[in-house]
Amino acid sequence: MASTKKEKRLFIENFAQPHSTLLMVNQLCYAWPQAKLFTNWSARIKPGVTWLIGDDGSGKTTLLRLLAGHLVKTSGQLQLGQTDLDLQPSQYSSQLFITEPGTEKYEQMTALDYFALVQRQYPSFEQHLLAELINGLSLQEHQHKMLYMLSTGSKRKVWLAAAFASGALLTLIDEPFAALDSASVEFVSTLLKLAATQTTRTYLVADYQALVGTPTTAIIELTATDMTN
Ligand SMILES: Nc1ncnc2c1ncn2[C@@H]1O[C@H](COP(=O)(O)OP(=O)(O)OP(=O)(O)O)[C@@H](O)[C@H]1O
Questions:
Q1: Which of 14, 29, 115, 229 is most deeply packed, by most CB within 10 A?
Q2: Which atom of ligand 1 is nearest to the CA of 222?
Q3: Could you give phi then psi for residue 218, rounded to 5 degrees?
Q4: Predicted TM-score (pTM) of this structure
């Protein structure tokens, strides 16, 4: 019987980028029960901001979750800094932060308690930056509320503030502008512009398109090509 297989093609725009690779993806394979999604997919992610772009269903969210180790790859190698996911999974995880827009894990915590939790988990957490992020994202009035009480947009701002303050070597952000008010869109755009100048951290940001007019380390486009076996 005919089946549908999705193949990914990789396009990387390399700009002058003297720094070394922070995340190495080698021959990554992954399949959902109904379709192959990644077949021997490789990439080298350097410091700054790399955009992961593609249409609906092209695999952006799945790839972020694979790189975070939240989904178990079928095969392939992931190395973050000096740490291999398969050999040192806890150490690998401790070096990355992923925004999880749909998570309900922290619903019974206040935003401030959540930030304190993140601070305990990330040794390089930037406490001084957190206050600026709370102000810049207009979270002051929400910081003492339980997360279940927050709107989708405010919750996303909490994840974003934690992501930028985490100090993680690798920060994975899915749809950074979704459900945000225009002032916050502008603020997050500025944060991403600053992040693009980082030499010791890397951000992989998934969206439908890259932010126009910002410095970018690379753009990776995922495309889904339906083929019949
Ligand atoms: N839990 C799941 N079980 C089975 N298939 C899934 C699951 N999650 C995603 N998929 C499929 O994997 C493919 C990629 O989905 P994914 O959400 O990663 O894409 P995306 O680029 O992030 O899309 P969007 O921008 O719409 O979120 C889609 O065909 C989707 O239907």
A1: 115
A2: 21
A3: -160, 160
A4: 0.90
